[in-house]
UniProtKB/TrEMBL annotation:
Keywords: Metal-binding, Signal, Transport. Residues 1-23 form the signal peptide. This is Zinc ABC transporter substrate-binding protein. It comes from Evansella tamaricis. It is found in: Cell envelope.
Amino acid sequence: MFKKKFLSVILLFSLLLAACSTGDNDGESVSEDGLTITTSFSVLGDIISQIIGDYGSVEYIVPIGEEPHEYEPVPSDFQKVSDADVFYINGLDLEEWLEKIVSNVTETEIVEVSSGVTPIPLVGDDEDDPHAWLSPKNVIQYVENIVEDLVARDPDGESIYRENAEAYIEELMELDEWIEEQVQQIQEEHRVIVVSENAFKYFGEDYGFQTEGVWEINSHEEGTPQQMNRVIDIVGEKNLPAVFVETTVDKRYMETISENTGVPIAGEVYTDAIGPEGSGAETYIKMMRENVNVFVSGLSE
Ligand SMILES: [Zn+2]
């Protein structure tokens, strides 16, 4: 008898909590400060911030400079996710640590923002490549997914979300056109991107580059002598003027390739994180401009 009563008190208490919380999905009880959003890594953090503007708050889990594939979540990350109205992830298996979040935080809804993007498979693997954000064309799809989800969650903010999203999509379309123009400066046979992790496949497919990496994906990072020799051969055969290195990987592999081929590393590119304050790559759009500038200056001679 007591047990039953105790249970119903708990039930009543959780119902009250649910009614007061900002996390329910009926769109009626979002706090005046807007939605509290947590996302997995810094690139998505910026993209979502562009749509939210000042109306709500966005936090991301994987710090700039750390690995988004095989990150080890800490207790404060679980807190960030459970405090959020929604947890936005890239999906396409980027967040290999998602299971740890799910087993510690059960009440926050998880939404994949890459839905609808046509996946490119990893070479020699039946998994998909998660780096869809490296093509702005896909990011337009991300923005459309995010804005629809925000509007459903918080109808009061609809006009703000839609206006911000529209302006941002416009900027992404300008970026897309700008990239198309910039690429023309590189002769066709030099349109080859060589980095440590073969993360530019979506970019390469959309802008006409062959892409090569020492390894396919950071979570399978190897850098075996065979992998190194394969890339050294490609750089030589193609007579490439430059190779590149990412801000988020161990640079020694590309340094070895550069030493073995005599081809310089033309610069650092951003793949799995935006840049820190003062880097000139603090937003997704800036990081992509920086990447393209580095590709063009290295490959067009
Ligand atoms: Zn990656």
